[in-house]
């Protein structure tokens, strides 16, 4: 092989070890040879502004991408300062990524508008797809989630974080039951922002057949009685979103604090707690069992008074991140 080709092959092998986007960007500026080699070896494509580059230009330059991180609307959209229909539609990107990256495994979208039809293209276009994260996105419903759950057979991560979700209860699809009935590869399932009811029995069965599950955050339709059942099915969780953290007594009466505390005591791997979406402060002593291990605690939606909050925080000796809204 010509000397230039040998050097380029060696350079590509070296660049495989560069993972930080800033380092790879710097390497691509050295010369044309480095520019080409960096483009061929980049596996994650980060676009901080979906309007900064055209989808066609991105896929032409980077041919071996396995993961795409794409941001749309500016941050002040989180404070309702961007008008409805402003843009940041994911459709041109999905249309371009499908033919270019058949081996794509991961998509993370932030502040983008995503329709159910666009979600339906993911399992059709990417047979090896494993991770979908939607952060502060809108435009989709449970119909789109059902397509992802049913079509992405290798799914490991489905994280829905602070998405704007509006759907009539009569139109809700039982998306949880669409996951494969065999053992799954699921490692993270986050849907606390999906405000509509869901099939709890299907979720409990899904958790039971997902031995690799480590992150689970459920919505406010999960009571502490149901939470306890989920924790029994997944004792190795490291991140837990508790749902409502309120009792819905059945025929046997309300769950006692000591019974819930026993469940938390068995969950020795927990390092992150969130949820508490409609919390009953009387049950907070139940989490004392895991407080010493926690590095992150989110009470943003708990609506606690300082008298209710202080006894909990006294037990959290290793805490690094705390989100709280004190009444």
Describe this structure in words.
This protein has 327 residues and is α/β, with parallel strands linked by helices. The chain has three domains: 1-40, Up-down Bundle (Monooxygenase), CATH 1.20.1280.50; 43-213, Leucine-rich repeat, LRR (right-handed beta-alpha superhelix), CATH 3.80.10; 228-327, no CATH class. 33% of the residues lie in helices and 16% in strands. It contains twelve helices and eleven strands. It has helices spanning 3-15, 21-28, 32-41, 55-61, 91-100, 116-125, 142-151, 200-208, 224-233, 257-266, 288-291, 306-313, and strands at residues 44-47, 67-71, 106-110, 131-135, 157-161, 188-190, 215-218, 239-242, 272-274, 296-304, 321-326. It has an eleven-stranded parallel beta sheet with strand order 1-2-3-4-5-6-7-8-9-10-11, with helices on one face. Strand 7, helix 9 and strand 8 form a beta-alpha-beta unit. Helix 6 (116-125) packs parallel to helix 7 (142-151). The chain is globular. The N and C termini lie far apart (71 Å). The model has no long low-confidence stretch (mean pLDDT 91).
């Amino acid at each position: 092989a010509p000397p230039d080709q040998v050097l380029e092959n060696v350079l590509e092998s070296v660049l495989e070890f560069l993972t930080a986007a800033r380092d790879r960007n710097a390497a691509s500026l050295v010369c044309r040879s480095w520019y080409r080699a960096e483009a061929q070896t980049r596996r994650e494509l980060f676009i901080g502004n979906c309007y900064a580059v055209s989808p066609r230009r991105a896929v032409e330059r980077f041919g071996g991408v396995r993961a795409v991180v794409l941001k749309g609307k500016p941050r002040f959209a989180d404070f309702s300062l961007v008008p409805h229909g402003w843009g940041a539609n994911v459709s041109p990107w999905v249309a371009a990524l499908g033919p270019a990256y058949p081996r794509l495994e991961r998509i993370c979208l932030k502040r983008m508008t995503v329709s159910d039809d666009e979600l339906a293209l993911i399992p059709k276009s990417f047979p090896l797809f494993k991770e979908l994260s939607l952060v502060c996105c809108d435009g989709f419903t449970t119909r789109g989630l059902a397509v992802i759950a049913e079509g992405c057979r290798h799914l490991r991560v489905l994280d829905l974080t602070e998405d704007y979700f509006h759907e009539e209860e009569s139109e809700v699809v039982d998306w949880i039951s669409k996951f494969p009935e065999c053992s799954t590869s699921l490692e993270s399932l986050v849907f606390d922002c999906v405000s509509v009811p869901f099939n709890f029995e299907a979720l409990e069965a899904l958790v039971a057949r997902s031995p690799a599950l480590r992150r689970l955050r459920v919505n406010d339709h999960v009571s502490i009685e149901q939470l306890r059942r989920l924790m029994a099915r997944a004792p190795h969780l490291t991140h837990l979103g508790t749902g409502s953290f309120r009792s819905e007594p059945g025929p046997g009466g309300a769950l006692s604090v000591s019974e819930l505390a026993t469940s938390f005591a068995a969950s020795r791997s927990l390092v992150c707690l969130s949820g508490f979406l409609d919390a009953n402060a009387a049950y907070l002593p139940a989490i004392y069992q895991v407080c010493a291990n926690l590095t992150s605690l989110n009470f943003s939606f708990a609506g606690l008074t300082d008298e209710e909050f202080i006894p909990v925080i006294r037990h959290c000796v290793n805490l690094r991140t705390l989100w709280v809204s004190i009444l």
